[in-house]
Design goal:
Oligomer: heterotrimer
Chains: A mainly alpha (302), B mainly alpha (275), C alpha/beta (432)
Main location (chain B): membrane
Helix content of chain B: over 70%
Membrane topology (chain B): Multi-pass membrane protein
Order of helices and strands of chain B: HHHHHHHHHHHH
Number of domains of chain A: 1
Transmembrane segments (chain B): 7-33, 70-94, 106-128, 140-160, 181-206, 239-260
Keywords (chain B): Cell membrane, Membrane, Transmembrane, Transmembrane helix, Transport
Radius of gyration of chain B: 23 Å
Largest sheet of chain A: 2 strands, antiparallel
Number of strands of chain A: 2
Shape of chain A: flat
CATH architecture of chain A: Orthogonal Bundle
Largest sheet of chain B: none
Number of helices of chain B: 12
CATH architecture of chain B: Orthogonal Bundle
Family (chain B): Belongs to the binding-protein-dependent transport system permease family.
CATH superfamily of chain A: MetI-like
Strand content of chain B: under 5%
CATH topology of chain A: MetI-like fold
CATH class of chain B: Mainly Alpha
Number of domains of chain B: 1
CATH class of chain A: Mainly Alpha
Strand content of chain A: under 5%
CATH topology of chain B: MetI-like fold
């Protein structure tokens, strides 16, 4: 066995001067090559274009004009507020509902297989389909939701046509579509918790609520971290569902930073939209990097 | 007592899930049963007449059986990309979580950047053309791998923390090579996460629209989401066919999910992960 | 369970392989294969398929593969990307006018000025596919369109109304329709692009009053917010909203709803481009005789005229490796047989721009109503997007706001001027 290890070390994959680490950096290599060449390289190269007026066919260097223009966009402030609201609402609801559903679906409950499938099914359906479906269900006069409300004597609001409500309606649909993903990640986390812990807790006489609080919750932290990060970043960047349902409207009422950038890109303002992406990137980094540091530090604590 | 409470809980869960989830699905299914004129009304109504079969035939045969070509392309794309992503990202996540070096911060930032920054389409096409990968299915596989790595790495990095370090250290002391430690000991323990990851990534890649549109032009290269555009345009949409198509292309990811969902359940009951 | 799944998958796979071999077999049987890129959508594809079928029958040595792309601004991006990366199809269909100018025709498209068939293409179309060096780079694909107002003839007959020649008459008609308990004006902001019609279709009236507007607008000296005549389009939208003429669900209704409402009499007027006629024929063939059309009225009955949209063009990128075959196909589309193939597949929605092309005798009334504006003594003029390269991308959001009472017309016009400024800067026009 020792001989075999020697020969493996002789293969010149990575130069290892000292004692070989059991966690070799060569494990990074294939992923790093693909990711570096096909994503990082073109993406960072394109940042140059944020300093140009770019038609895709040619580019003129204009310094920081694009950034000045982007920051002067008439709906940028509203877009910023909408973006943060949207990300907080969707990621918050996905964490809470995802955890509750996962606990429910890992407990001894009837029709568990059916419930899991049904909760996850929206993740499988294309955004276009979900967008059209809910636009129809949320129709102010003929939509099913408002017709159902009318039966119990409530006049339903214009979910997507009322400027102050549109963003929240889309956020709810986003949660509907995405909560299955959060639930599955949580289920994977809960399943990974060794049964002995619950056993020990039960022997110590703790109630179901206590074992949730002191066993499940702390031990599925990795799942929580993942769900928070992914849904928060996803929420900050999202535009496809907003685009499918309201196109940022009515007017500009449900615009987020990402949908503003997307519209600029669609309009052919390629330099401007690249500058917008830089701004959005900085915004996300400012919010997410401290968040990850916080989450990671507490992880190291335990 | 506990039995009674679970009974009520189950009943409530089933009713709520039916209202919240089944009604919207049933809308999609109902649309697939309607004819064009009724579907155009876009209301939640019972189909007049049974048009499902003629809708399916029309959707499948449109544009020289484009949907079948698309199913084949998307399947190859999905299987190849997901396999690569799962293996490569688990390797990165493993080392990233286990080995603390001063580069970890930078690596993590670059990974997060992949979640935060949208890819730059035109420079990527230039690059693919330079590499001779533009318009090739394997070129798109590599693109999908690159774009899915960050999510997948973060997922693994988080969950590898739940596997006790002593386990791989013991194996190392026994003289196992890092390669074996990872593939024989760590990866099997990550099965629930891997299953989750496979499901999530296959759904995302199978349903990807933008990347095939730009990096893999041409009818022979169509993928499933592109077929939706056969029935939907800026000015006219055949909603019955559109929803039939949506329902049809949802079936393969549904099968993947149902299959792997049982795997998660199996993992639970067998207590596959032991501390 | 798993076994059946596997078997089904295998069957599907085998069927797919068969289909694939069939496809490749077909393409090898011919000597030249062209690719033809068009925007998606059932009617456009049907027209393209008919054109290809009859062209292939006349040219058995050429085989054409139709490829589709998304429409709208997503499609604009795809076309630009494929041109910029030299991966464009051999022939493609794309807008004429300002969008045509934005794809750098001089740099990317084959010069078609000296093709023999250009002699039969009307000058009005040649102008909108002419690059800045004066060369013609495209051929017309489709028929000319008008922007104006569809109306329900049954409601007009029932209430004894006549087709309005001025805006005041139009509003008077609306008042009577509303008094009769009907929806006077249909709006469909569920498809935001439909909200722009009152503004865009008013352009004939602007140009009749101020012939220099387009030139001054391009130069940056005429603005919607400061030019009272140009601002009228926004005002008209606000007036109809303020008067409460719209259908109750105007914020959520879609384009298809609008067509149904004006055809069935659920609504009396629907401002739209006349390409909608073929869609009404396809969806509501029994109701088509109820639908008429008139130009958006201005303030002077003597100057009543129609704002006209030119059809798309078809173009050949200079990266094609099959130039001769591509030219043959373009020549076919620009011929009388080409027009006939289009009419066969999609019906007639308006006059073609090829000399010698005629419309069938039994066209729908909405088309008949449109023809006098094109006949001798009729008045028409191109929409602003064919006279100036600048069209602000946010117009449809702004008109939704004005048409929903969120923003007053004057504010909307000022916001649109801001939007236009960005576009002009992007184009690098002088004076901005």
């Amino acid at each position: 066995m020792a001989v075999m290890t020697e020969t493996a070390a002789a293969v010149p994959v990575v130069q290892v001067p000292k004692r070989r680490s059991p966690y070799p950096a060569s494990f990074f290599l294939p992923a790093a090559v693909i990711y570096g060449v096909l994503f990082l390289l073109p993406t960072f190269a394109s940042l140059y274009f944020s300093l140009t007026r770019w038609t895709l066919f040619n580019s003129t260097f204009i310094g920081l004009d694009n950034f000045a223009q982007f920051l002067r966009e008439p709906f940028l402030i509203k877009g910023l507020i909408n973006t943060v609201l949207y990300a907080v609402i969707t990621s918050g609801l996905k964490v809470v509902l995802g955890l509750l559903l996962a606990v429910l679906l890992t407990s001894q409950i009837a029709a568990r297989g059916y419930l899991r499938s049904v909760v996850f099914f929206p993740v499988l359906v294309s955004t276009v389909g979900v967008g059209i479906t809910f636009t129809i269900l949320m129709h102010p006069t003929q939509g099913m939701i408002n017709e159902a409300l009318a039966v119990i004597g409530i006049k339903g609001p214009g979910w997507l046509v009322n400027p102050s409500l549109a963003l929240f309606s889309v956020a709810l649909v986003d949660v509907w579509k995405g909560v299955g993903l959060a639930t599955v990640i949580y289920i994977a986390g809960i399943v990974a918790i060794p049964k002995d812990y619950y056993e020990a807790a039960r022997i110590d006489g703790s109630t179901k609520w206590q074992s949730f609080l002191y066993v499940t919750l702390p031990l599925c932290r990795p799942a929580t971290v993942t769900v928070i990060l992914l849904s928060f970043i996803g929420g900050l960047r999202t535009f496809d569902l907003i685009w499918a349902m309201t196109r940022g409207g009515p007017g500009f009422a449900s615009d987020t930073v990402a949908s503003v950038i997307y519209k600029q890109y669609q309009a052919g303002f390629y330099g401007l939209s690249t500058a917008g992406n830089v701004v959005l990137f900085i915004l996300i980094a400012v919010l997410v990097v401290p968040l990850t540091m916080l989450l990671n530090r507490r992880e190291g604590h335990e | 007592m506990s039995f009674v409470r679970n009974y009520w809980l189950s009943a409530v869960a089933i009713v709520v899930s039916a209202v919240v989830f089944l009604i919207p699905f049933s809308f999609i299914i109902l649309m697939a049963f309607k004819d064009k004129t009724q579907a155009q009304l876009l209301d939640f109504s019972w189909p007049q007449g049974m048009h499902l079969w003629s809708n399916i035939v029309e959707v499948v045969t449109t544009r020289n059986w484009m949907l079948l070509t698309a199913f084949i392309n998307s399947t190859i794309l999905t299987v190849a990309s997901v396999t690569l992503v799962v293996i490569l990202s688990a390797m990165v996540g493993f080392v990233l979580q286990r080995r603390k070096t001063k580069f970890n911060g930078l690596i993590e930032f670059l990974i997060l950047a992949g979640l935060m920054l949208p890819p730059a389409v035109v420079p990527t096409i230039w690059l693919l053309q330079g590499l001779g990968l533009f318009g090739k299915l394997h070129g798109l596989v590599l693109i999908e791998v690159a774009y899915s790595l960050p999510f997948s790495i973060l997922l693994y990095r988080a969950f590898i923390a739940t596997i006790p370090r002593e386990l791989d250290e013991a194996a190392i002391i026994d003289g196992a090579r890092p390669f074996d430690v990872f593939f024989r000991i760590v990866l099997p323990l990550l099965w629930p996460v891997t299953v989750t990851n496979i499901v999530v990534q296959s759904v995302a890649i199978f349903n990807d629209f933008t990347n095939p549109l730009y990096y893999l032009p041409g009818n022979a290269n169509a993928t499933v989401q592109l077929t939706l555009y056969n029935f939907q345009s800026q000015f006219s949409t055949s909603y019955n066919l559109l929803f039939t198509n949506i329902a049809l292309i949802t079936i393969p990811p549904l099968i993947v999910f149902l299959f792997f969902n049982r795997q998660i359940v199996a993992g639970m009951t067998a207590g596959a992960v032991k501390g | 369970m798993t076994k059946t799944t596997r078997r089904t998958a295998l069957t599907g796979f085998a069927a797919g392989l068969l289909a694939l071999t069939a496809l490749t077999g077909a393409s090898f049987a011919q000597s030249t294969t062209l690719t033809y890129l068009i925007p998606s959508g059932a009617d456009g594809v049907a027209v393209a398929e008919e054109l290809v079928k009859s062209f292939e029958a006349a040219n058995p040595d050429i085989n054409i593969e139709i490829e589709t792309r998304p429409g709208g601004s997503e499609g604009d991006n795809l076309v630009k990307t494929r041109l910029a990366t030299s991966s464009m199809a051999d022939v493609f269909r794309y807008n004429s006018g300002s969008l045509f100018q934005a794809i750098n025709p001089q740099q990317f498209l084959v010069d078609l000025t000296n093709e023999p068939w250009q002699a039969d293409v009307q000058d009005s179309f040649k102008q909108v596919v002419t690059a800045s060096d004066g060369t013609v780079r495209g051929a017309p694909m489709g028929a000319a369109m008008g922007g104006g107002i569809y109306y329900n003839k049954a409601i007009y007959a029932e209430l004894g109304l006549t087709v309005p020649k001025t805006w005041a008459e139009f509003m008077a008609n609306n008042e009577k329709i509303k008094a009769a308990g009907k929806v006077a004006v249909v709006q469909t902001y569920g498809d935001t692009w439909t909200s722009q019609l009152f503004v865009l279709a008013d352009y004939y009236n602007v140009s009749a009053a101020e012939p220099d507007f387009a030139a001054n607008y391009t130069a940056g000296t005429a603005k919607f917010a400061t030019d009272k005549v140009a601002q009228r389009g926004f005002d008209k939208l606000q007036e109809t909203f303020d008067a409460g003429y719209f259908n109750e669900d105007f914020g959520a209704a879609k384009y298809d709803d609008g067509l149904r409402m004006v055809a069935s009499g659920e609504g009396a007027h629907y401002p739209m481009l006349t390409f909608a006629t073929t869609a009404i024929v396809a969806s509501y063939p029994d109701l088509i005789d109820n639908v008429g059309f008139f130009a958006q009225p201005g303030d002077d009955a003597a100057k009543n005229g129609l704002t006209v949209w030119m059809p798309d063009g078809i173009y050949i990128p200079n990266t094609t490796s099959n130039l001769d075959a591509a030219k043959k196909f373009v020549a076919y589309v620009a011929s009388v047989e080409g027009c006939e193939a289009q009419t066969r597949a999609g019906g007639a929605s308006g006059p073609y721009l090829i000399n010698g092309c005629t419309l069938p005798a039994d066209v729908p009334p909405a088309v008949t109503d449109m023809l006098p504006y094109f006949a001798d003594g009729g008045q028409n003029g191109p929409a602003l997007e064919f006279l100036s390269p600048i069209k602000g991308p946010a117009l449809e959001q702004i008109t939704v706001e004005v048409g929903s009472g969120i923003r007053p017309a004057a504010d909307g016009a000022a916001l649109y001027d801001e939007d236009v400024r960005k576009q002009a800067q992007q184009l690098g026009l002088p004076g901005w």
